[in-house]
Amino acid sequence: MADTEPPRRRRRVPAASPIDVRRPLSGAWASVLLVVALAAIFAADHATDSAPVQHLYYAPIIFASFRFGYRGSLTVAIAAVLLYHLANPHFLTLRYEEADIVQIVLFIAVALTSGRLTEDARRLRHLAITDDLTGLHNLRSFEVRLRAFVEEARRTSRPLSLLALDLDRLKALNDVHGHLVGGDAVRTVGHLIAAHIPPEAVACRYGGDEFVIALPRCSATDARKVADDVLRAVSACAPVLDRIAFPAGSLSVSIGIACNQFDGAADPRSAGSDPADDDLIGEDLFRAADSALYAAKEGGRNRVSVNGRK
User: Fold this and answer.
1) Contact 192, 226 (CB under 8 A)
2) CA angle 300-303-308, nearest 5°?
3) What DSSP element (H or E) covers 287?
4) Among 284, 14, 305, which residue's Cα sits nearest to residue 166?
5) Residue range 156-162: average pLDDT?
6) Does 36 score more than 60 pLDDT?
7) pTM for the whole structure
8) Mean pLDDT, to the nearest integer, of 197-222?
9) Are 61 and 76 in contact (CB under 8 A)?
10) Cβ contacts of residue 197 below 8 Å, gap of 6+?
């Protein structure tokens, strides 16, 4: 296949938007909180036999839907029904009044409704942060994660590495076999990237065949190992693209690497705390990886190039 695609300059990643990326309450602590809340409401219900107190069961049901989804909210609702009966022993004889039946039905209804709304919200959030072709992060999501990685690296003086890569000769592939084959080639590379990067890494497709990978707490040496793994995996695969079988070696990528050690010497902004500085550091790091990628393309493609900056 003729190489008709000249090396191209990559566009820069824009500054990240200020979105909160704090971790949610862990599952274990959320479970403990739910047990404590249910026990407290049960004790108050048993002592007062008061409808306003019984309405408090809605709170852990809704919280469980936010933290554990549909099944979690339904489980807590069933627990609330059981505790409601134990706190009011006359219910055990099945002597229900109309208000009691309404209360029990509402427990289940609130669980089903809040659980469904939470699941729908999670699906929408997943769609909002995911590239639909490859399943990797999209640009907006990557920007947020990169800012968090830069802030952590700057604060802890740990290294942060960035890999910029793209698919070699995609234009020639499109010209010969069509854009459906080219789209499948990009999808295949995205899946291989996801399968060969560390769990803490974040990969993004930010252009047609252009990818960037952030590797927190990763030195240039370790980043080179990750890049070599991705390079070998792409070259070794024998993909089926738009129902056409291609031999191993049909696809290849070029990769550029840049690493910032954040030791306070190479970059005076590493000691700062302004989020705008994190954006600038991230842009500089991407620009360095982009420069290394350009060198890899100029050097013949299907290779890794490391930027010499710290």
Assistant:
1) no
2) 100
3) helix 275-298
4) 305
5) 94
6) yes
7) 0.70
8) 95
9) yes
10) 203, 213, 215, 226, 230
